[in-house]
């Protein structure tokens, strides 16, 4: 056995030597494109060199051309997805054409112009990759210029990622991201001494234009030469250790980057809930609940009315709407209202498979948590449709299912008088009232409904407050809480 191992080592050793030689040969050819031309005519044409890729699914060619005036060498990757290929190739084509224009415009002298675009490939998973292009351009004897372009995408899905897929870019997080970047710059005097603060600020103001890459160790930011610093600093690649970025990472990022240690809450149970207030055991309370929002115009109207009456309510939101109106979600939470999970897409949860069920619930939970810092307190399944299985899932998540005891029928009547009539004729102490913050008629009806309920001595509290009060007092309808 030992002999075999030794023989194996020799074979591997020899193979490595051959490989090193081959790689050396390839790099030597790519690094010195002028040596490629072997015939008189060939130097007028583009040459393509295929470089073996050790990333499965990524094919790399180097396109070179040399004339008396210029030469260029462009690392050109292709993957299985045409859209991503088109995007990258049109960028490369654009770089090449603008270089050739600059060559034409440059004063004619003996100095050969050059464009070299080099690709660094940084894998995140087996199918997610960062492409970092570093370009170096020098024309007509001017100073050279180094610049970057970055792409992060999923080869198997054919999807391109944007920064907010990995970093949560809510307003306060953008400020934190700036602080983290500034601190990292400060730690590198060779960069910080040449920084142009106004230009750096300008770059932060266009955060979605930031050039970046990410892997399980670092988050990196790239700036072209002269972009945010004086020429002496050159182009900047700023590497930030990933643990410093931990609070800003999206749940997806933690999953892709396989850094569960960066997840503060490893517990799958929903424990991070908004604090609630104790109520008067002898008081009269109702919980107003609004489903299907947030809505761009109705939700703000309802919030204004609630705030005029110092009334609190519970909003059962759809994850899809949350994604569209994060500022409204933030406002709902900031004004002391409670948020519940009404699924992501308003699908009948009893009609979907388990994966879809989890997606509907978890995506909405994460979206709300990312914006407000708290997970939704409850789940209200669309159409009030649930099964034993859904109850089990909700129990596992520590998110009770909550329905309602008074249906305002606002979705049906779309009439302010009818809504008022329906609520006032069915309300009792401890009622949970169902409304929808997607109909203008509901917003029209609310001031009167609240006035009438107030005249009867009711106060308006969140579902959590109401249920805690019910536990202590035994008042109110007992249903909908399956914990
Ligand atoms: Zn609904």
UniProtKB/TrEMBL annotation:
Cellular component aspect of the GO annotation: membrane
Domain of life: Bacteria
Keywords for this protein: Hydrolase, Membrane, Metal-binding, Transmembrane, Transmembrane helix
UniProt-listed Gene3D superfamilies: Fervidobacterium nodosum Rt17-B1 like, Glycoside hydrolase/deacetylase, Heat-shock cognate protein, ATPase
Pfam families: DUF3298, Polysacc_deac_1
Protein name: Polysaccharide deacetylase family protein
SUPFAM superfamilies, sorted: Glycoside hydrolase/deacetylase
Domain spans labelled NodB homology: 284-461
Any GO BP: carbohydrate metabolic process
Transmembrane segments annotated in the record for this chain: 7-28
Any one Gene Ontology molecular-function term assigned to this protein's record: hydrolase activity, acting on carbon-nitrogen (but not peptide) bonds
Region ranges (Disordered): 258-278
